Sequence to fold (168 residues):
Amino acid sequence: MVDEAKLGEDDQQQELQGRDALKDTALAMARQATQHIYVFSQDLDHFIYDTPYFVEACSELARSHRRSEILVLLRDSSKVVTQGHKLVLLGQRLSSSIHFRKPIEEYDDHNEAFMVVDDIGYLYRQQSDRFEGEANFSNRLKARDLGDFFREVWERSQPDPQLRRLQI
Fold:
């Protein structure tokens, strides 16, 4: 059961089917984060990352210590701009810990979506438009690989001008 899985301890790959499974797993991981959360997303999936509980977990992490961070790579911010998003609003208030960037065009063919927590656990969807994926609360190798890819893209990305306007 996702609620009982412990970050850094439970090394069992979980196959996830449906929005609720994705949302519950992301929340369980975020609540256990102690250092960072990295999110690579097409449109910052509202059903996963725009829930009050997920945003509360991110808020607690961001306020826990000055080196904690939540980094989000967001390919298409149009839905976030038009519909609003609780995580973006939180990022406006906690701008020293929560950052958003848009990947450069070179990464447009990457249709996956994932979240990495503390380079220990991950939630991964090969197709960002499908409500299925996998997660593991303690697979440092895969989490580190996804984290390395995330940091590579992050370093080559720029702040999204649409989100910058939102934050004024």
